[in-house]
Each structure stands twice: as C-alpha cells, then as structure tokens.
Amino acid sequence: MTGQAGRTGQSRWIEPLPPELVHEPLNWLFADHYRHRQLCRLLERVGNATVLLRDEAREIVDFLRHDMPLHIIDEEDDLFPLLRRRCQPADELGALLGALSAEHRDDLEQARALASGLERALTDGQAPGRDRDTRRLFTEFALHDRRHIALENAVVLPIARLRLTAADLRSLSVRLAARRGILLDPPGDEAAS
pTM, whole model, 2 decimals? Predict the structure, then answer.
C-alpha cells in the first residue's frame, strides 16, 4: 500500500478530510468514519509487522492523539446532544447514544495506551508485532472501532439526516469548523453561489 502526500508532505495512509466538506456536517462525519476504517487497516498492518514501520506508526500516533479525540468531541458535544433534542421516542436512540458514549470513553483510554506504546516503539525501535499480546491489542482495537463506526453509520447518521433541522446542521458545521480553525462563509452566502 502506498501512502498519499499529506499536509506536511509526508506519506499519509489516512486521507485528510477536504475542508469544504464541513458545509455538509453529516457527510463530514461519515467521511471521518471512513478515515477510521483506514486507521484500522493501518493498525493491523503496524500491529502485525515484525519490523517497525516508522512512518505508519507516526501517522497512527498523530491520528490517535489528535484526530480521534476531535471526532469524539464532535459527536459527544455536538451531534449527540442535537439528536437527544430532536429524536422522537419511536427512534429509541437514547440507550444507543449512551452506549456509544461509554465506548467513546473507552476508545480514548485505549487510544492513549496504543499511542504511548507506539511512541515507545519509535524510541526503542521494537516492532509491536513481535509481542503476541501487543498484536492482540492492535487487532482488538481495530475490530472494536470498525463495529462502532458501522453502528453509527447504519443507525445514528440516518436518524440524524431524518431529524436534524437546517439550523441544527448549520450549527454543527460552525462548531466542526471552529474546532479545526476552518473559516466558513457568513450565513446566506452559500445560497447566493
């Protein structure tokens, strides 16, 4: 697998999100889930390798330390509260959102542990794949993350598309953009273009 040129000019295995996609916040979140699937493939590759794949390991650390926490904040601080306000009882989404929030807390803890382990590996030059228990941690994290994003894609995002208002979506766009330092056009400008 070849990497892609990224914002730093280094090889990237996880595609960056196009900033203009922030105008479509549910598509942004869906695309970010695709990036999580790319992370999972990379975790399995690095976690099973018996030779340290330095560039890939650095990219995983960067994603786990920066991108994953941002994505979780996007959902916990913005998307989930909007859904809790807009969903109808028949949607039966409350318990699922609670379970996903609990998984987010576990994900952050495991992501920190994986990132720390990879940082140690980058310092000492030892590939994670040399240790069976470490390999299992990488594989289990990837499996769990795939299941988590599949559930969000199959249930949460379709209900969000049905229930969120135009004002909700605009607010979500503004918050996603602000969190990443992306400047949005003033309200109303997108209709004129």
Answer: 0.88
